Amino acid sequence: xxxxxxLTGLFFGSFNPxxxxxxxxxxxxxxxxxxxxxWFVVSPQNPLKDSKTLAPELDRLEMVRLAxxxxxxxxxxxxxxxxxxxxxxxxxxxxxxxxxxxxDFALIVGGDxxxxxxxxxxxxxxxxxxxxxxxxxxxxxxxxxxxxxxxxILYPPQMAISSxxxxxxxxxxxxxxxxxxxxxxEYIEKNNLYR
Length: 195
Known about the structure:
Layout: E1 6-13, H1 20-32, E2 37-42, H2 57-68, E3 74-77, H3 89-99, E4 103-110, H4 111-115, H5 123-129, E5 131-135, E6 151-154, H6 163-171, H7 184-190
Parallel strand pairs: 1-2, 1-4, 2-3, 4-5, 5-6
């Protein structure tokens, strides 16, 4: 019997915090690409980012779960919580393939991440084994990997919302409820995050 394969998009991030821009992006890929589901892989520590501004990993995971709870196409994944830190995408992909052998995984990355892809651990190996779906961002052409046969560049709606903007607004006491998915703003307030 032939193996039935399901393409699952992997949206890696700190989600510090998750915001509506993340949700719009995931919805775009679930609706307009060949993937039918998107897993949000919450990263405890990105090796290319400063970890000083990170909320605790369990809080970030819970905010992602709150944001995704009403949509069966999306799932929060904490696999990197049980891996050495900082975690590297190639190692996470290996673990996921071991755990879910019937699935094919595709990465969802921003154009800025593709431009910095040469800094990742084993980028050529990732490219040889996985599709990469790129959301184009103004000012980033994707660098040397943009023309690779496993790279697909898409042009979803652009939203100038970032987690750093959200954190700054919270520190300044602004009401950002419409920039955060349902339940996330209340969770941040209740747990006194980003003050």
